[in-house]
Amino acid sequence: MTNESVNILQNEKHTWLEPGAWRKTCIVHVTMVANARQSLFGKLAHNGFEAVIEKTPIGWALINQQRRLLEMCPEIKILADKVMPDHHHMVLQVQRTMPRSIRQVVRGYMQGCKEEARKLGFEENLYDSPPFYRVLTHKGQLHAMIEYVKANAERAWQRKLNPDLFRIHRKTNVCQLQFTSLGNHFLLDWPERQLVEMSRDASEGQIEERLQSVLAAAHNGAVTYTAAISKGEQRIARMVREKGFPLVVLLNDGFPKEGSPQERYYKPGGVYFEASSRGKLLMMEPDESAFVNPVVMKATEDALRRKAETKHYYYSPIPVTSQRYRFVALNEIGRRLVER
Fold first, then answer.
1. How many domains does the chain have?
2. Which domain range does residue 234 map to?
3. Burial (CB count within 10 angstroms: exposed 0-12, middle 13-18, buried 19+), residue 61
4. Could you count the other beta carbons within 10 Å of the beta carbon of residue 190?
5. What is the spatial distance between Cα 56 and Cα 138, in angstroms, rounded to a whole number?
6. What does pTM read for this prediction?
7. Which CATH number covers residue 11?
8. CA distance linking residue 116 with residue 129, whole number of Å
9. For residues 68 and 222, what is the distance between their CA atoms, to the nearest angstrom?
10. Whether 1 contacts 146, CB under 8 Å
11. Tens digit of pLDDT for each residue in 205-248?
12. DSSP-derived secondary structure letter, 131
């Protein structure tokens, strides 16, 4: 991380603006993708210590154009950048109001890159589509943005070494239920399993007590299953992951749609990526048919009825498409997986 990046992280007076203030002070993560995802910019390699990108002449042209961008736009600082084989990232800080918008600046930068590529004999369009912008809107994002860009090559290397851990499987069948899944499928075969399910009303003491029992079981070899919905479930899932124990996470609408442009390049984000690369994570999203499976529906209805009776509410059935039904159903599906 550059000194400028550290200063910004420590600067409590920095203005964090909503997307749209493209001429004013803001921080933007820009991603630019090569035409047809060709490896125009470099080659992924490993130097024995870390993953690196061996840049092509076009890849070096991208770096040279960054210097030109800074000369032409002194209002901008580059907080992080990474040239990958088929795309490149920049995290840009606009330090003061500019005469042009950041979109115009980036368009100019990309045009300069195209011209340099043509000089090198590349006559096609250099880029696949317009750039993708992510505008920082709260303080917690900056560190994540910079770390994401810095670790891009290492994540790509991990995917290359362990391709099956990062491949979406559309028809994973367990307990006569179908899932979309990604991660270490051998975790499903592990005989010792535990489900983490906690009420949203659980106290800190109850969460801590359950956390210690879960960690003890995980230490003794149990694989932890959870939908990670409530505050307690999320806290326990985070600790299980941070301790390096295996984790199966049940998701509702967690993967890109089949056949969508995002499907081919999907990867779990942040900490989930690291857990997946170590073979300690399996992410599972039930198919629509799982939510209307008769056994799952009955278990979910019984659970909803018990919850209502505990709070002395009159229970009436809710649609299977409602978020509440699905969240309860995820836990019931998890229970079925654990008790099989």
1. 2
2. 164-339
3. buried
4. 13
5. 36
6. 0.68
7. 3.30.70.1290
8. 18
9. 55
10. yes
11. 999 999 999 999 999 889 999 999 999 999 999 999 999 999 99
12. P
